[in-house]
Amino acid sequence: PDAFVSEYAASNAVEDLAETFATFVLTERPAGMSEKNQKVQFLYESPSMAAERTRIRAALASEIK
User: Fold this and answer.
1) Among 33, 32, 44, 36, residue whose Cα is nearest residue 20
2) In which element (H, E) is residue 65 found?
3) Are the CB atoms for 61 and 46 separated by under 8 Å?
4) Eight-class DSSP state of 3
5) What's the mean pLDDT when you consider all of the chain?
6) Residue of 57, 53, 32 lying closest to 44 (CA atoms)
7) How far is 50 from 45, CA to CA, in rounded Å?
8) Model pTM?
């Protein structure tokens, strides 16, 4: 339970990456040092990933309005 952001993410490496990225984009920055939180935190360390998160969240927000 500490290693994956969802049960589905545990099914294989590709789904782990996809679910981790979705968590990165759709939720707030996690606290704590669990393995799943470290995976999400890793994405924040890349300026291009952080910029992409911001772009995606802005696009989603404009769709909701």
Assistant:
1) 36
2) none
3) no
4) S
5) 96
6) 53
7) 8
8) 0.92
Instruction: Give residue 55's pLDDT band: very low, low, confident or very high (50, 70, 90).
Output: very high
Alpha-carbon distance of 19 to 3, in angstroms, equals 12
How big is the chain, counted in residues? 65
- What share of the chain in percent tops pLDDT 70? 100
Q: Residues with Cβ < 8 Å from 28, sequence gap 6 or more? A: none
- List all residues 6 or more positions away from 16 whose beta carbon is below 8 Å from its beta carbon: 4, 9, 10, 39
Distance CA 65, CA 57 (A): 13
Task: Give the Cβ contact number of residue 10 at 10 Å.
Answer: 13
Query: What was the pLDDT predicted at 54?
Result: 98
Residue 58 CA from chain centroid, whole number: 16
